[in-house]
């Protein structure tokens, strides 16, 4: 069987003007993952990343620590199917409805770093509306469209894969959530309950034979736990 390693990006810049920037801690997490994979002797036959800077930077920082990997021989392939969903657009599209029940929502989202608990509560509310499919907004990528995009990316991987390939996919929590729904068939709301637990630079492993795919492991972050520094375990 072949293996697909789903790797969530390192910590990004939550609360900053541009979230899509890997933080210094995110680079440390990525290096720790690379060191761990090096110790295990893991060798990737292919490496794929979404288009986002935090995904690509995680890939480069991880692979740089692996003597088994040569970027000239096995470059990072870019596939937009593995981009995260557009969280900012989802929030904006549902803001008017949210303000009707939470008048302070705009202020909380504008100062997310200072209101982490409130941000999470309101973001969860918006996500529940989005994935339900009952509150579609014109011009916004729907949950089903997002699922279809990720499915197409997975199909491309499988169509191009050799039987025993080890493939790394550097992606995001929402994309991993979508793949979980596709592979294990959990309802979208239940999938997102798992999403909130996905650690930065965690590993989830899929096993495949032809077009049959199974979940082998989820959200492993042993590479961070071994360093015995709780600050390395982050979720954004």
From TrEMBL:
Instruction: Identify the species of origin.
Output: Stutzerimonas stutzeri
Q: Which Pfam families match?
A: His_Phos_1 (PF00300)
This protein is called what?
A: Phosphoglycerate mutase
**Keyword Hydrolase attributed:** yes
Give the InterPro entries listed for this entry: His_Pase_superF_clade-1 (IPR013078), His_PPase_superfam (IPR029033), Mito_Ser/Thr_phosphatase (IPR051021)
Q: Which PANTHER family match?
A: PHOSPHOGLYCERATE MUTASE-RELATED, SERINE_THREONINE-PROTEIN PHOSPHATASE PGAM5, MITOCHONDRIAL
What keywords appear on the UniProt entry?
Hydrolase
From the UniProt record, which GO molecular function terms apply?
hydrolase activity
